[in-house]
Design a protein that fits this description.
This protein has helices spanning 20-29, 57-70, 89-98, 119-122, 127-144, 158-161, 170-182, 197-212, 234-243, and strands at residues 34-45, 51-54, 75-83, 103-107, 150-151, 186-190, 218-221, 248-253, 256-261. By secondary structure, it is α/β, with parallel strands linked by helices. The protein has a single domain (20-261), classed as TIM Barrel (Alpha-Beta Barrel), CATH 3.20.20.140. Strand 1 and strand 2 form a beta hairpin. The longest helix is centred in the middle third of the chain and has 18 residues, at 127-144. 44% of the residues are buried. The structure holds zinc ion (2 copies). One zinc ion is lined by residues 7, 9, 81, 223. One zinc ion binds next to loops.
């Protein structure tokens, strides 16, 4: 069975214009057994003047049903990426429970209500001060939110504020990873920026630390917003998984995990 992409956005998300079918055509060509999009939910978002950015789930389900009929050879799954913020925690929980999702990704995209996303963090003295504040939010997210399957892009904020050596943040990362392990959730390896050396360096350390703490469950996603990103960086990211003894990745169907052996020979990766 081929490893499939567990983090993708289609035009159902506010920030993508990609037709879901384009991804599916590629997946079918690649003989993938599963396909999922994980569409955005960011409540009272700072990107939208505190309006909700919520995927149209009815539209998503209808598209999936129609495409499933057209492509019976692949199993189409229903996913979501919920952006956590403390002030919208309760509503985030309600949304996670409101739909028959196959997989729920938990993510931190914003700090506090008001202003631009991360404006206050970006203004702080340096990358490490800002990233430490981001990691505290990640810890609060994985501690307080229970109804999720995998935690996305723990290095997300560094996409926007610049690179740092994650070894300087071992203490907070350890707390986050221990909480994920304790709750029996998965950690996402986000390959969006692979093969950039900074991204590779971060994934290497994330895997080193997570596995040293006993973490075994990982999901892999490109976080693609268009079809050109489908399975971006998978080959390099999976080589790093192999380096740390991870031989399989998690997928989720009806919120139940299953495992796919990593085989660099099987399927087409970029
Ligand atoms: Zn995200
Ligand atoms: Zn995403």
């Amino acid at each position: 069975m081929n490893v499939y992409d567990c983090h993708l956005h289609s035009a159902i998300s506010f920030d993508s214009s990609e037709d879901m079918e384009n991804y599916i055509k590629l997946s079918v060509k690649n003989r993938d057994r599963f396909f999922i999009t994980t569409e955005h939910v960011d409540l009272e978002s700072n990107l939208a003047r505190q309006k909700d950015l919520i995927a149209d789930f009815e539209k998503q389900k209808n598209q999936l049903a129609q495409l499933q009929e057209k492509y019976p050879e692949i199993d189409l799954l229903f996913g979501v990426e919920i952006g956590w913020r403390e002030d919208v925690h309760r509503r985030g929980c309600e949304i996670a429970a409101s739909q028959p999702f196959d997989m729920v990704i938990l993510a931190v995209h914003e700090n506090v209500k008001g202003g631009d996303a991360f404006s206050k963090l970006k203004e702080s003295a340096n990358v490490d001060v800002a990233y430490d504040a981001y990691l505290k939010l990640c810890y609060n997210a994985v501690s307080s939110f229970d109804n999720f399957d995998t935690f996305a892009h723990v290095d997300y904020m560094l996409r926007y504020i610049g690179h740092t050596d994650l070894r300087k943040h071992t203490e907070m990362l350890t707390k986050i990873f221990n909480k994920i392990i304790e709750k029996n959730k998965a950690l996402e390896i986000n390959a969006k920026l692979v093969p950039h050396p900074d991204a590779m360096d971060r994934i290497d350390y994330i895997l080193q630390l997570y596995t040293s703490l006993g973490g075994k469950k990982v999901t892999i996603g490109s976080d693609g917003h268009n079809v050109a990103y489908y399975k971006n960086g998978f080959r390099d990211a999976m080589k790093l998984m192999d380096k740390y003894g991870i031989k399989e990745v998690c997928g989720f169907k009806q919120r139940k995990e299953f495992y796919i052996p990593i085989s660099l020979a099987g399927g087409k990766f970029r």
